Amino acid sequence: MNETSDAPDDGATPPRPQPLHFAIDLPAELEGGAYANVLAAWHSAYEFTLDFASTGPVRPRTVNGEPVDGYEVPCRIVSRVKIPVPLVFDVIRTLNEEMTKYEAEYGEIRRPEQRS
Q1: Tell me: the pLDDT tens digits for 51-72?
Q2: Which end of the chain has less Cβ packing within 10 Å, N or C?
Q3: Domain interval for residue 90
Q4: Does the residue 68 lie in any domain?
């Protein structure tokens, strides 16, 4: 017997943890994905919520049916994803890795030039 443990000391090394692999299944109805060009992110104490949205055409702004100064861009949420707080670091790391690979293959990512 080992002096610091009640386990028998048979000289064998403890079993190593086995690698964990995720078998990801993409349902056919999600294969096409959803187009989004807007991201809104917010959080609670327990999770982050990512709302992916798609914009509609710019229109004059109204309040109670009356025109007011300015314009608005209607945005329709196409997907809402809730993730636990610790997973946020993995999301950021993965996006950064993919952006680096993208730029190595296609060049620097640039925003479109704004029209006057």
Answers
A1: 999 999 999 999 998 999 999 9
A2: C
A3: 33-106
A4: yes
Greatest pairwise CA separation for the chain in angstroms: 85
Burial class of 100 by CB neighbour count within 10 A (0 to 12, 13 to 18, 19+): exposed
| 72 belongs to a structural domain | yes
Asked, for residue 88, whether it belongs to a domain, the answer is yes
Placement of tokens 């952006």 in the chain: 99
Cβ(61)–Cβ(67) below 8 Å: yes
pLDDT at 5 over 90: no
Share of the chain above pLDDT 90, in %: 74
71 found inside a domain: yes
pLDDT at 21 over 70: yes
Please state the domain count of the chain: 1
